[in-house]
Amino acid sequence: MGWEVGVDRKFAEAPQFYGLYSLIILAASGTILLPGMPLIKIMFLSQVLNGLVLPFILIFMLVLVNDAS
Question: Which member of 14, 21, 29, 33 has the greatest number of CB atoms within 10 A?
Answer without folding.
Answer: 14
